[in-house]
């Protein structure tokens, strides 16, 4: 069974999270690392996929800022291999404006993405948002419905007693649905409540709902729990009706 991911600040009491920046452009890497360091983060850097995996093995990061277009081993493969060691949060960087590339990053488990050229300050805000939501919620009890159980404190989820592996955003999305059964939410609502953003690419929500359905539905092609409400968005129905 995969061990639940425990952030550096929870393991050591040090509030300075460790961020691994992976980009083959030295200018981008230096600027991003500089902004993150000034924001109080411990920063490691790598300029290719294999080096990134070595760095992650030496010093387990609390979050990875990962360029999609890397030489040799692209960001998608790096993300897949990082996931094998545990659900470390990933913010993907892409130089392409093509929606297909952004969706590919989300499909392999990226929690957020920023398209180049980007504002370093915006990237820092995205990193802060992802890390903030990765912290256990000690004030919320366990949530249960339809054979699903979520423990916000341990950040663990199970289906019929069997642990399921969820990314950060998938976990938050499932928790939100369990807290609000029977209510319909638009993609804008979910972007605001789960991602913490009043703006953004709504396809992010669509991809995460599809991935979550693949892990909690008996037949993801005919979802009974996370239902589409046409013209509105999505609704969680514990009874599956």
TrEMBL record:
Residues 140-238 form the OmpR/PhoB-type domain. GO terms for cellular component: cytosol; protein-DNA complex. It holds the Pfam family Trans_reg_C. The modification 4-aspartylphosphate is found at residue 67. One of its GO terms (molecular function) is transcription cis-regulatory region binding. PROSITE patterns: OMPR_PHOB, RESPONSE_REGULATORY. Gene3D superfamilies: 3.40.50.2300, 6.10.250.690, Winged helix-like DNA-binding domain superfamily/Winged helix DNA-binding domain (1.10.10.10). One of its GO terms (biological process) is regulation of DNA-templated transcription. This is Two-component system response regulator. Residues 18-131 form the Response regulatory domain. Residues 140-238 bind DNA. Keywords: DNA-binding, Phosphoprotein, Transcription, Transcription regulation, Two-component regulatory system.
């Amino acid at each position: 069974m995969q061990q639940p991911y425990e952030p550096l600040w929870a393991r050591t009491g040090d509030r300075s999270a460790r961020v691994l920046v992976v980009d083959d452009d030295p200018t981008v890497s230096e600027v991003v690392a500089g902004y993150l360091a000034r924001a109080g983060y411990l920063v490691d850097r790598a300029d290719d996929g294999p080096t990134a995996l070595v760095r992650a093995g030496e010093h387990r990061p609390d979050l990875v800022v990962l360029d999609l277009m890397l030489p040799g081993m692209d960001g998608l493969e790096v993300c897949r291999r990082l996931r094998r060691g545990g659900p470390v949060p990933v913010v993907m960087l892409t130089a392409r404006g093509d929606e297909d590339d952004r969706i590919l990053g989300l499909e392999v488990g990226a929690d957020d993405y920023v398209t180049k050229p980007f504002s370093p300050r915006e990237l820092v805000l995205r990193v802060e948002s992802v890390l903030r939501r990765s912290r256990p919620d000690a004030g919320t009890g366990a949530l249960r419905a339809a054979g699903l159980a979520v423990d916000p404190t341990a950040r663990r989820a199970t289906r019929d007693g069997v642990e399921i592996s969820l990314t950060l955003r998938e976990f938050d999305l499932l928790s939100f649905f369990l807290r609000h059964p029977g209510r319909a939410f638009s993609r804008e609502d979910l972007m605001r409540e789960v991602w913490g953003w009043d703006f953004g690419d709504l396809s992010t929500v669509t991809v995460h709902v599809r991935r979550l359905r693949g892990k909690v539905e008996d037949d993801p092609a005919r979802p009974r729990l996370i239902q589409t409400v046409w013209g509105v968005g999505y609704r969680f129905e514990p009874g599956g009706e």
